Serine hydrolase (Actinoallomurus iriomotensis), 358 residues
Amino acid sequence: MADVEGFCDERFAAVREALTANLAGGADVGASVAVYLGDEPVVDLWGGQTHDGPWRRDTITNVWSITKTMTALCALILADRGELDFHAPVARYWPEFAAAGKERVEVRHLMGHTAGLPKWTGRFNGADLYDWEKATSLLAAQEPEWEPGTESGYHALTQGYLVGEVVRRITGRTLGTFFLEEVAGPLGADFHIGLPTEHDHRVAHVIPPEDAPPPAPPRHMAEVSWTTEWRRAEIPAAGGHGNARSVARIQSVMATGGGSLLSAAGCERVFEQQSDGVDRVLGTWVRFGLGYGLPSRGLPLPNPRTVAWGGWGGSVVVADLDAGMTVSYVMNRMAGGLTGDARGAGLVLAAYAGLAET
C-alpha cells in the first residue's frame, strides 16, 4: 500500500482511497489532492515520490493550464473593480493590438479563447516564451485566424500573454506580480506565476507523458519545465507552480461566490458564455465562460453553476458554486491528454460522493 499523508474528513474517505489506489497501482508517482467546503479544507492529502525524494507537504510542481484559472481570476478582479470592461475592445487598453484588423476584438474574446490567436504565426521559438515584449508584440501585430467571437480555438500558450498584457497595461504590474500581491499573498496560497529562486528545491519535475497525441505538445516539451528559465518566466497560461492545496485554496474563492476577492456579482460573471461547440484546436466539445470551462456535453459536471479546467498531463480543478465545494488534483506523472484524464475525474467523483454524506 502507498503511504498517503495529510488529513481527510472521514466523510471524504473515498478521496483518500482513490489517491492511495492511484499511487499503489502506478497510475500516479507523486500527487496531491485537496477539497474545500466553503473556505475550509476538508481534504489535504499527498503522497508518492518526486525526482529527488518523497512528495512532501510543501512540494510544488508545474500545473500547466491550471494556471489559466489564476490568470482569469486576476482579470475578474479588475472587472469587479470597474477597471476592466470585458466588452471593450482590447485596443482600449493596449492600442497596438488594433493592428491587422483586430480593432474590434474584445477582452472577452481573449478570456474565452475566441480571439483567433491560438498560436504565434511569426518567427517564434521556445526561448521567446521568456521574452514578454516579443511574445506580446508579435500577437499585437498578428491577424486572427478566424472571425473573433464566432467560435473557440484553445489558446494554449497565447492566452496568458494576451490577458496578461491587458492586466499589465491597466495596473502597471506584470501578471505574476499582480497575482502575488492581489491573490496568492492575501490568501496565503503557495502558488507562483514566475517562481522565485528560493522555492526551486521544492519543485517536483513533471514526468513526461509516454505519448502525447495532437493537439498536445510533443513529450519533450514537458522537460522544458525542468529548466530555470521556465520557472523564472511569467507564463500565465501554463507556467504556474503549486500543489492541490494552493490551487483549491485560491479557486475556493469562486465556489464561495467571490470570497474575499470578488463581489458576488463579480464572481457570477464567470458564467457569461463565450462559446459552446467543438473547439477548433482541442477537437472536443467545450463551453467557455470568462476564463473557465463550463458544464457541457464535453465537460459533464453535476451542478450547472460550476467552473473547471485541467492542465496538460492530468491536473484538474473544479469549483462548484451550488455545492460550495472546490476540488483540486496536482501530480507529477503526466498522461498524454492536454486538459486532464481519468485520475482527476475519479478524485472529483469521490469528492462528490463524500459531499452526498454531509
